[in-house]
Amino acid sequence: MNLTKYMNLIKIVALLLLINILLKIPNQYFEDNFLAYHIFKSLIQTSILCFVIFKFKFKELLFFGRSTLWALVVGIFLLFLSISKMHSMLEAKGEFVPLSRHSLFVLSCLATGVFEELFFRFFVFNYLLKKLKKNLLFSILVSSALFALAHLTNLFLSSYDTYSVINQTLFAFSIGIFLQVVNIRTNSLVLVMFFHALINYWRSE
Hints:
Blueprint: H1 7-24, H2 34-55, H3 66-92, H4 99-131, H5 136-150, H6 162-186, H7 189-203
């Protein structure tokens, strides 16, 4: 395979992974405000990614039409349903999570979902699809594999052990394929962002 035509993608993936790793290093200094710092990290990465999307003129592929409205309605409904269910489960266990902390956690899940879906399911996938002359299956597999490998950066966090990171990486690959298929079938990146956020939300349970 000629890697020359993928050099821009390789550079962008490498750059964002490097930024991700560098932003994870100060985690130990924000243990009391970890969720707020996580949201801050996601906003920085999303801002950089938006610049890349405009730079490569991929913004034309972002479609916000009628499907966006129903995706928002469905996504918000599922989110509130999940929050209500989680609250009931915590009450049944006799546990209490302050509203402010729970809200920050929900926002951190959404922030991660927005960045990772915009990057892997939108930018990486469409870049590959364009370069591979509409080879849909290979584009799905490669973008999902890159999504999975990106989770290896969690090895830089002391809160994760090697086994859990490997398990998370394998899980991310299968979820990546699922989310990409949903995105293609529904043509709604917003809905997939909410799905991603909900998966992160429930995996924390």
